[in-house]
Specification:
CATH architecture of the largest domain in chain A: Sandwich
Order of helices and strands of chain A: HHHEEEEEEHEEHHHHHEEH
Structural class of chain A: alpha+beta
Number of strands of chain A: 10
Distance between the termini of chain A: 45 Å
Number of domains of chain A: 2
Strand content of chain A: 15-25%
Oligomer: homodimer
Radius of gyration of chain A: 19 Å
Largest sheet of chain A: 4 strands, antiparallel
Shape of chain A: elongated
DNA sequence: ATAAAAACGTGTTATATAGCACAAAGGTAA
DNA sequence: TTACCTTTGTGCTATATAACACGTTTTTAT
C-alpha cells in the first residue's frame, strides 16, 4: 500500500467550506490542532452513547451513520461522502451520540477538537452560518426520510435508496454503475426492510430490466421508471 | 374576546434565548421589525412548497408541523409549544418549505423577517450558536424518531406519542391529564398509524388501566408501564 | 488447498396492520 | 327542533412484509 502523508495545504483544500471563512490566524490555529486518523473497511468510527469530542471531516472513503433499534434491526440514517463533515451534531446539542458511524470502505478522517471549533465560532460568525446551513439541510433530509420510510412500500423505498446512492456517491465511467458496492444487508438497512426482501425486490427490479445486478455491482438502467416507483411509493 | 396588545418588553421576555445575546442596538433593530399574527384553531400557518420569509416564534398556542405523504396520509413531524421558534430551517437551507404548519389551538405568533435575522447573525456569533444548538437538538430528535416510527410496533408508537405529548405540553392540575386534546386522527398521524388503529389501541390501553379516556381528554395512569411498552416497541 | 464463515437466494408460513363497511355519538347550523 | 356532517367506535377481510428454514455461492482465514 502506497501511503502518502497529506500536507497541510492539501487538507485545507479538501475542506474549503469550513476553511474559507477563516482569517489567517484562525487557519493557523486549526492547522495546529487537527489530527488524521485512518479506519479499515467496516471499522467502527464512533458508537452510540459515546461522548463526542471531535468534528470529523471525511477526507477519503465512505461512511454510514446508523442506529441500532429494537430487535437487532439496524437503520442507516445517512451516509457521508468525502469532504463532508459529521459527528458534530451531538456535541452542539450537548448530548452523547445517539447514532453510530462505521466505514463502508477504508477511510481517512480529519479530526478537529470541538473545543477549537467552538472557540472559532465565537469569533467568526460566517463559520456559524456554515454549520447552520449544514444542519438545516440535514434536518430537511431527515424529515423527508421519516415520511418516505414510513409511508412508501418496499419497492418505493428500495428505488429511492438506489437513486439516493447514485446522487450521493455517483456512478462509474459507464454513467450507470453505482460507485458504491453495498451488501444486501446494508441496502436493506438503508431502506427499512429485511435482507431477504431487499434481495427479492432487487431481483424483481432486475427482471423488470430497471437495473442489472452483478454481485454487489448495480447498474441503473431505467432511471425514469425507478423515479416513478420511488415517487408513487 | 379580550384582546390585549403585547408590549415590546413582554415580547422580549417571551423570547429570551434569542433576545438575550443581543446588544441594545440589535434589540432595538429587532423590536422595530417584528409583527404579530394570530391564527384560528386548525388554521394553516404555512404550506409545503411556499417560500419561507419569516422566523416565527410561537407566543401562545400549540402548533403541528406535518407533511402529507403518499395516498393522502399525513405525518406529524414535530409539534411546537409556546416560546419555541420554527419556520427557519427551510430558509437557512435555501429551500422552500418541505413541511406544512397548522394551529392545534388559537395561536399568537411573532414574525421576524429572516433577512433581519441573517443580518444579526453576521454580527453576533452568540446568536449563531443559538440556532446551531436548536437545529442540532431537532436533528437528533428527528433521527430518533425515524427509527421509532419504522421499527416499533403500534402499541410502542402510541405509547411513545402519549409520553411525548406529556413531555412537550405538560399536564393539567391533576398531574396526569394531558394538556392537549387531540383528535384520534391527529394522534394517529403523530404515531404513524391509521385512525382506526389509534382508536383501538387507545381503547386497549384504557382497558389495561394504563390510561383513562374521556373523549379527547387522556389521563396517563401507569406511566411506567407506558414507558416499558414504548421502549420494547 | 481446505475448512469455516459470511453472504446470497428462494420458497413457505405467520402476522401485524391497513382497508373497508357500517353504526353510534357528538357537535354544528338552519 | 330537525337535519347534517364530523368524529368515534367496532367487526371483518385483505395484504404487505416479516420470520423462518434451508440450500447455494462467495469470501475469508488457516
Amino acid at each position: 500500500m502506497v501511503k502518502k502523508e497529506l500536507s497541510e495545504t492539501e487538507i485545507a483544500e479538501s475542506i474549503p467550506d469550513l476553511w474559507q471563512p477563516l482569517t489567517d490566524a484562525q487557519k493557523d490555529y486549526l492547522a495546529q490542532n487537527f489530527t488524521i486518523q485512518k479506519y479499515k473497511k467496516n471499522e467502527t468510527i464512533y458508537c452510540e452513547g459515546e461522548t463526542p469530542k471531535h468534528l470529523m471531516c471525511l477526507l477519503k472513503g465512505k461512511v454510514k451513520i446508523y442506529k441500532d433499534g429494537v430487535g437487532g434491526r439496524s437503520q442507516i440514517i445517512r451516509v457521508i461522502k468525502d469532504k463532508e463533515y459529521f459527528a458534530y451534531r451531538a456535541y452542539f446539542a450537548n448530548e452523547n451520540f445517539v447514532t453510530a458511524a462505521a466505514a463502508f470502505e477504508p477511510c481517512t478522517i480529519c479530526l478537529i477538537p470541538m473545543t477549537c471549533i467552538v472557540k472559532l465560532l465565537e469569533e467568526n460568525a460566517q463559520l456559524g452560518l456554515f454549520f447552520i446551513r449544514q444542519l438545516s439541510i440535514d434536518l430537511g433530509i431527515s424529515d423527508e426520510r421519516t415520511v418516505s420510510l414510513t409511508q412508501k412500500h418496499i419497492r418505493g423505498r428500495l428505488a429511492e435508496s438506489l437513486l439516493f446512492l447514485k446522487d450521493t456517491y455517483g456512478v462509474e465511467e459507464d454513467q450507470c454503475t453505482l460507485s458504491i458496492y453495498l451488501s444486501r444487508e446494508d441496502l436493506a438497512n438503508l431502506s427499512n426492510m429485511t435482507t431477504s426482501n431487499a434481495i427479492r425486490t432487487l431481483s424483481n427490479f432486475a427482471s423488470e430490466k430497471l437495473i442489472i445486478i452483478d454481485g454487489r455491482k448495480i447498474k441503473l438502467i431505467d432511471e425514469e421508471k425507478l423515479k416513478k416507483i420511488s415517487k408513487i411509493g
